[in-house]
Amino acid sequence: MTKKQRLDYVKNELETLYPDADCSLEYIDPWQLLVSAILATQCTDARVNMVTPALFARYPDIYAFAEADEAELQDYIRSTGFYRHKAKNIIGAAQRISEAYGGKVPDEIDELVTLPGVGRKIANLIVGDVYGKPAVVVDTHMKRIAFRLGFTKQTDPAKIEKELAQILDPAYSSKFCHQIVLLGREYCIARKPRCGVCPLAPACAYYLSR
């Protein structure tokens, strides 16, 4: 298969498997997604979703976070791990957005990555899921699966993002990322991929090479 044929096959299968794929983090506005994404670093989305209801009840908007006591905030997010660093970044991001952007989460990647705790992965998530712009989220699932499928030979997330952005339909790219996460959880598991039952196997460079 050419890369284009492989991508068409993969897309068709993913649309069959996960037609309603979406972000598994629960949020109601851009700021809540940003906070949740920071908390999800080295933590499961399920755990974050358990923590955020009480967190957002205590701090109902970005300005409340900007004025939060760091030690108190740490207590709310302790179970997500790395809570000291995350609390500092969340407060810092809230303060910067409040001061520089009038309380509105930026919709450009170059602006988002200037916020504490926000790299390109989180920036692309915000841009794609909240603002509906073309975006490619390169998390651990995408990094692993894009390589196995044969879409890239790169290992650097920024380079993987660039390669995928060149071949994906911009209107589909965000959904594709969520579908890949689900595939990674169900079939393309890191240590022991379930190649024998994976619907993408006929188009997978990793499987065919074996």
Description:
The chain is built from twelve helices and no strands. By secondary structure, the chain is mainly alpha-helical. The protein folds into two domains: 3-22 and 135-209, Helix-hairpin-Helix base-excision DNA repair enzymes (C-terminal) (Endonuclease Iii, domain 2, Orthogonal Bundle); 30-130, Hypothetical protein, domain 2 (Endonuclease III, domain 1). The relative contact order is 0.14.
Q: Profile the largest sheet.
A: none
Global structural class? mainly alpha
CATH superfamily of the largest domain: Hypothetical protein, domain 2
N-to-C order of helices and strands: HHHHHHHHHHHH
Quick one: CATH class of the largest domain? Mainly Alpha
Q: Give the overall silhouette.
A: elongated
Our count of helices gives: 12
CATH topology tier name of the largest domain? Endonuclease III, domain 1
**Strand composition percent:** under 5%
Kindly, what is the distance between the CA atoms of the first and last residues, rounded to a whole number of angstroms? 16 Å
| Low-confidence segments | none
Helix content: 55-70%
